[in-house]
Amino acid sequence: MEVTLVHDWLNQMGGAEAVLENLVQMYPRAPIYTSIYWRDEMPPAYLGWDIRPLWLNHAPRIYERHQQYFALYPAAWASLNLSRYDVVLSNKSGFCHGVHTRRKQKTALHICYCLAPTRYVWTFDDYARSEGMSASVRLALKPLIALLRRWDFQAAQKVDHFIAISTEIQNRIQRYYQRDSVLIYPPVDIRRYAPQPEIGDYYLIVSRLIPYKRIDLAIEAFNRLGWPLVIAGSGRDAARLEKLAKPNVQFLGRVPDADLPDLMARCKAFIFPGREDFGITPVEAEASGRPVIAFGAGGALDTVIDGATGVLFEAQTVESIIAAIQRLNTLKFDSAVIRAHAENFSTETFRQKLTAFVEEKYADFVKREA
To answer: Domain of 8?
Structure first.
């Protein structure tokens, strides 16, 4: 079975790249097709991979401003035919599911591991507001968004099987693409994390500092409470957030990976105020035995059990976060129970389930094509 991997873009690190790294370990001989590849900014280990960027890789300053080229991604992916492989496994949050997998003499099985239906297309208004786009720019882009939605829907119909990373994404795949999907949670390396006997008095956020993460709400909540909040991470929203914060809020910047487990294990609770398609950091906190205070939407509904592994709040408001923090302090949590829940999202579980799914669907595909 000859497999190839497809990934939207390689210019920054995030949850999508964590999934890709696992896919590469599962299929080490598979070439990786991607729209762009910023060699200097990606981990050195990637230099040993067979990465094949598309023609879009040559666009001016695309590495730093890849979102400004979103209208060109469909054409770039549509120009790529991967029918010579047996299985195409796409790791998709953008447009990479639009590759061709059929020729007259050869057809590849296309399995899409869907991180999210294309966010810029299906939730454009929310995305535009979070990025600070003016009303006039949003209005001017509406016809283009309508065209991209049609393309995105049609591309989704050519995928053989969808896998969703959360219940939220399952629902969106059905809503936007009218396709069924199976649920396989993304891999979290929980082996790095373990409960510790001594807990500090600080609450913790580990995140990229960008607008849709809604870290501003958490800062405002802790400004009012006066309790210690530690924020680890960097991003383009850092300066604004630092101006917003009072002295009880501490910014650590980007924390080395080696330091994260201890930081996680000693926090009083982990704060997760944004809406994510899945959200790896809450699972890492749970693997450390720490409860999570999360907005009750998106992937948090899969990863956080209200009252058992943390507290969910209903609205993205300062008042709702404060109420959740205060409620958490009235509850007792068992670090062993929280850690056991995190096992459901382990790397080993992901690999076992995905391998079994790919092998089953490929066997069915071979029988059908014979």
So the answer is: 3-187+347-369
